Each structure stands twice: as structure tokens, then as C-alpha cells.
Hints:
The structure holds two protein chains of two kinds. Chain A is built from five helices and five strands. Chain A is α+β, with helices and mostly antiparallel strands.
Amino acid sequence: MQVRLSINGEQREADVEPRLLLVHMLRDVLRLTGTHIGCDTTHCGACTILMDGRPVKSCTMFAVQARGKQLMTVEGLEQNGKLHPLQEGFMAEHGLQCGYCTPGMLMTSYAFLERHPSPSEDEIRWAISGNLCRCTGYVNIVKAVQHAAAKISQGGA
Amino acid sequence: MALRTSPEVGGMGHSIKRKEDPRFIRGKGTYVDDVQLPGMLYLDIVRSPHAHAKITKIDTAKAMAVPGVLAVITGQDLAKYNLHWMPTLMSDTQMVLPVEKVMYQAQEVAAVLATSRYAAADGAAAVEVQYDPLPVVVDPRKALEPGAPVLRTDKKDKKDNHIWHWEWGDRSATDRAFGEAAVTVKEDIYLPRIHVASIETCGCVAHFDKIDGKLTVWMTTQAPHAIRTVFALVAGHVGLAEHKIRIISPDIGGGFGGKVPVYPGYVIAVAASVLTGKPVKWIEDRMENLQADSFARDYHISAELAANKDGTLTALRIKTLADHGYTDAAANPSKFPAGLFHVCTGSYDLKAAHVEVDGAYTNKPPGGIAYRCSFRVTEAVHTIERMVDLMAHQLGIDPAEFRMKNFVKPEQFPYKSALGWEYDSGNYGGALKKAMDMIGYADLRREQAEKRKRGQLMGIGISSFTEIVGAGPSKHFDILGLKMFDSCEIRVHPTGKAIARFGTKSQGQGHETTYAQILAEELGIPAQDIQVEEGDTDTAPYGLGTYASRSTPVAGAAAAVAARKVRDKARKIAAHLLEVAEDDLVWEPGKFSVKGAPGKSKTIQDIAFAAYTNHPQGMEAGLEAVSYYDPPNLTYPFGSYICVVDVDSGTGEVKVRRFVAIDDCGNIINPMIVQGQVHGGLTMGLAPALFEEISYDEIGNIRGGSFIDYLLPTAVETPKWETGHTVTPSPHHPLGAKGVGESATVGAPAAIANAVVDALWHLGVRHIDIPITPAKVWKLLREKGVTE
Lengths: 157, 788
């Protein structure tokens, strides 16, 4: 089936099997490999992307469900050579180690900050609770999101 | 440790930002599943629904009819090449694919090779296997009973399920100490089977080039060189030679010990690529990862501790039953079948100890790998920390005071433990004191007493662990005879920049940053000017890999030694350039100056250029060195953790209110990274303490085989860790450093368990096995009449 969609502001198109998972279309067909697969059961969040601005777990959606949608992946965060404050925050606060969960964490946090520009620590912890990290113990991820929130509120993005 | 370099140079002690991060925050890392080659085929695996069964028939006809399926590989196919069994690191044997019977649920039965992921999965679903179920043995105690079904019928003359008996220490001195003891405590402690569950599962892309006969494997491995040698040894008879094998360990999405073993999927993918001449990708899914990859722990421990009436500890006696699944595939490079379990005297000055461990076969997946810890150290630490706490409570002495009294004292180092280890350095009282001050220990005890009067359940738990990491001295450690050294090769370019390659492989620890900092410290070349590479066996010097917190103790030491060799040559060149004797030069990071004439100096960059353009006559050009470092001893990081829990008397839920962790890993390379390692380690200590367990029903069905019921802590369950450190350098490590990646995983579970028992002690609770789930606590509270 023909799937036409927008990814990171770019129109993309592919002829795919109806059962192809969205994450496989992104990774294997369109070669956007920043989005990862960690569990197949919607628990770990490594595959989180944004669909029309909302975070979705692309390992449990079909590619055809994304027809005509606006998608955003980790590759779309950096704009014109400028890192997004979340990317800066993760680096500044040591919010990543192996880097495998990082794209999903970034996308979940991105959607969260759009709706909650000045969150409490508790709100951040609940917001990222659908994304598992095995390396960092979350403390520095929370700090990274706070870092980004502060930067954005100062007009950093 | 005082800083010796500027922030621009970024040597030891600077929290410089990680060199790895720019690619990861952009989604530009290269993990194994990101590797896509032209004409690549995909492998999927058929797995057994039975825990023990004879295979009577494998019908591949329907699978072969699936569009895109090219082949179905069975044990019979591999047997033609004698590749259906492989050796384990413990000199046991493991099936690649079975010929006669399966030994655990989810065991590999056949593999399907197809042109796409989906076709391979369709093919695997269409393979029809007929089984004749056999009696299942799940409980290792039952496995050792007379008359139990013998599982390893492949081993001629094997008449039972007993793998090995191992004992260590002075039995008679220990028994004597127990005979003379005023007080003894005894407890059965079970450390259940758990799984590291790195967020990236395991997998590989194998590519055999038929023209030049070279096999390249991109593989989720923590030990690429050892894998290359193992492949050459195991598959030499089918034409693979070590110079024609290249293992590339790309970016790895967490390892924690789970990516040390060779799993059947890797071997099948390699075999399929060699046979077809095409690249073959195998990536396991999460359920395969949890159900079939090597597990950790599964130790049934019975421990006794003895003390004098004044509360001086005297002796420890332990008997353990180790459930190894159907084969002993422990990733344990020590000469001891139970790894480093005999560090179980911990931080305490015991006069006698004796340990016995028996291994048993059961119908479960193979293993005995680490869970972010050095070979059975968590098992050891959990045991001694639980027992010491039990003894303190039994004697009515505060557990902190009791520990202080019984610690090995700073002046006793280097300290020879009752079980023969030589602890390099420590100040256990210093770390505990700091933790108590930071958390406000005395106030918490007062609060607890008040709350107890009101019927509220609050507990305070301590764990003062000693770790043992940095495998290891070759007298105690090897993998198939390969000594456990590690390596660093440095090349300084003419313009003063450098490349350094290592035999280890980071899985998130930040080696590209910290190794560069070590070299910056030793050479004064800015860390930003040093490219660090590892994980490609065609380019990196031979090394044994990254696990058991060995990278800093071993490869970090190699970096320092190699850098000092570079510096030795640099001194000769500087003397030549400055026209003075070598002895007239003084070194500070980055330059040699003439004694008494500090204005006369040459920077390391000047010297590097001269090494290629103006070196002394008779000297070879270039500025490079290599070191293969065989450590003289292990390093013994330590720490004291204090945990405060509140237990809900209605639901049994345990909430970790505060957790203070004071770690001592000697001199610190990058404080930011060390703190990150501790945060992560604490979370992997919390996980098995409260949530994680893989158990089996009586017919061997796995419980906990997906993230639906194997619970990894999220940001909500994870407390806000409070960390700090003391610094007690290792006297034998060139940088005074020790490993740190696993300390917290090792130390944290006991602090949490001790806190929960402390909260319930007055009700008569003496021990709770981890994971301490609400259901377990609720049951206890009901038994004690606290809740209905």
C-alpha cells in the first residue's frame, strides 16, 4: 500500500505491506534509524515519535495508520544546525549513557514541554514514565528536562 | 585529588562533557540493528514451548512455501559441520540447535532464513515441530534428589544433575569459631533469577565475503576480541581462521553482563552467512531476550554468622545451591566456579570463614552471568550485609554502630581476608560516617521511634559493601586460557593530536571521554584532541573487553602505562631539542622544561612534530606506544548506603523515601560520569530489591518473560538518589583509580532489604527475600496481625 506522510517537515512516500509496523518503515524503509526498538510491547518507549504533535510508540502502530500525518522523529529536533534545548540539556546534565533510550526520551519530553512549559519534578517523572532507561537512574534525565524548560522559557527555542 | 590540568586540557577530575553525546542526542549512533547491507537476509528463530521434550519431527515444508523463505536450519543441518553444540565459558557445553531434545522453554529449535524480517517471522511460525514431553525439573533442590530425572543425557556417564562442588576457606577453624561463639544467627537467603534487560536486545549482522574468505560480524558484544578467538577456535574446522574474522562491536545499547556470552543466534547467523555468502541479520525481540538469554543469580544461600558476647564478629559459614539451568554457561573468567562469591566476608574483620557451593542442572535457560556486577559479588554482599544486620538487631546494637565496631580498619590495609583476598585500600568507617551525616541518621532513628509508637512502619537500612573488580590478575583469571589483561595503543600525530585504541568496549560508560581524560592527564594533550576508538578487532589492540567494572582498573591502567612510554620517548626528544641531558628536564602535564630555566621548554605538541621531523639521530621516527596491562591485584571499591523506607501497613507497598549513597572508587577520572554510573547502578539495585524476578511454574513455564510482567523501574518508582564520595586511592593502580560502574548495583539491594526488615523487626519479621513486593509484605503484615 502507498503511504504518504510528512516526516520532520519533509514529504516522504513508500509502498509498504499493510502490516508493516511504523517503526520498521521509519528505520528500514526510510532509513531514519534514530528511532529505536526495545520491547515490542509498548512498554519501553525507545520507539517514541510524535504524530501530529502527540507522542506515540511507533512499534505498535502500522505504517498505514500514519498516512497523511505529520511525524517528527529525533532527527527533526535540530533545526538549521542548532540543537534543541532538550538536546543541549541531555548533554549538559549527563542525561544519557548508552544513548539507546535517548531518542524516545527526547521526543516524549518535547511533547510534554509543549503542553507543560514549567513542570515540577514530579510532573516530569510521570511524563517520562512510559520510557524506560536502564543506565541513568532518571535523576539526570529529569535535570535535562528542567534545563530545557528553563532555556525555552528564556526564549532559547 | 588536586587537579593537575586546566579545564581546557581536561585531565583527571574534570567533569568534561561526553564525546559520545553529539551523535546520540541526534539519533546518529550506530547500533547493530542500524547496520543494513545490500542483499542482506534475515534470520528468525523457532523456539520451544516445552521446558523438556524430545523432538520427534521437524516439518519444514510449509515454512519453505512462505514467499521469501530461503532455508530452514535445524540441528541436523549444523551437525553435518559439527556446529550443533558449542563450548561455554565454564567448559560445559551448550546446544546451538538441538538434535534430540530441548532443555528449556524458549530454547532455539530451528532457524528460518528469508529475504525480509517479516518473511522470516512468517517462516518461523510455519515450521511444524512435534515434541514428546519429558519430566521437567525446575527446583534445583529436587534436581539433586535421588531418582530425579537426569537432564544431561548427552553426557555419557552422567548419572545425576550435580554439576560441581566447590568449597573455600578453613572449615575446621570456622567450625571451631562457631563452637566457641556466644551468639550465632542463621538465615536462608534466596537471590532469584533476574535479567539485565538492557534496552537494546542482542543481535548481529554476519557478513561472509566468499571472494576474500573474510567474515565480518557486527555484534552486540562486550568482548569483541575474545569472541574473535572463540569463533576461530570453534569454527576452525570449517575454514574460519582468526585473521579472516573481524568482529565489530558498534554502539551498544547497554550491556550489564548480558552481552558477554555467545548466544546460539549469533552462531546460526554466522553459519548462514558462511553458507550463503550473503549478509545475515539476527535481532532478538524482547521476549526472546528475557526468556532465552543468560540470566543472573538464582542462588539459594544458607548463611550463619558468629559473634562474641561483646558483639565482635568472628566467623561466617555459607552453603549455597546454584541453579545454572541446563548448562553452566556462567560468564565467569575466574578460576573459581562460583566467581568471586568468596568476597562474602565483606567489609568486616572476620577471623574465619568457610563457603561451599554446589551447582545444579535444571530445565531453565543457561547462564549465571552478572547483573551489572563482578561475578557473584552481589550475592556475596547481599548475604553478608543481611547477616550483619540480623546480628546487630539480634544483639540490640544499632546497625551503624555494629558495623563501625566490626569494620576492617584503615590501618589494616592491605588487608588479607579470611577467604584469601588481599583488599588494596579502604576506609569503611569514613564512608559510613559521611553517609550518616548526610542523611541525618540520629534524627531518623528518633523519628522512627516516634512513628513506631503511633503504629507507622518506617525503616532505616544500611549497606556497607566492599566490591572486588578489575579482573584480573592472570593468576586468578582467564577466558579459555586468555589472560585477563587489557590494552591501549596510542599514536601521537605530527601536529600533536592523537588517536588511542583499546581492547575494551563501552556500552554507555563513556570510554571515549574518560580514556581521553587519562591520556590528557598523562600527556597534557587536550582530551578534545584525542580520538578514542574501541570495538573493532581489525584495528584495536587485543583485549578482553568491558564487564565486571574492569575498564578503568585494567584498560585505564594500560592507558596510563602507554602514555608514560610515550612520555619517556618525548623526554628524549625534548632533551635533543633543548640540548640538555634528560635528567635536566622536569615534566608538567603538556611540557618539558629545563630545571632552573622554566622559560626553556618544549610542549608535547612541539615534541610530537619533532618526532616526525627532527628526532635525534639513531632514534626511530614517530611517537607511539602500546601497553598490555596485567593488573597485580584487583581493586576493592567500597561504600556505605543508607536507605529510608515507609511501608504502607494496609497495602504492603514499600516506598523508598530517601537513599544516600557514599561511594569510594579511589581517584576519580570524571566526577560527572562517576555520579551517572552510581545513579544507574542504584536503579539496577532498586530493581531486583523491589520489582524484578523471573520465576517458573512447575512445568517450566516462564513467569516474567516480557516487560508486561518483568517490571523495570520507571522514573516514578525510582527515588531521587543522593550521592557523595570519599577518596581512598588504590595503591597499586597507576592512577590510584578503582572501578565504579557496578558498586551501586551490588550495594543497594541490601540497604533496601535491611530497611524493610528494620521497619518490621518489632513485629517479629527477621528476613524477606528480594524482590520485596507489596504482596510479600502484605502477607507478612497479615500474619503478624497488622492488617486484615
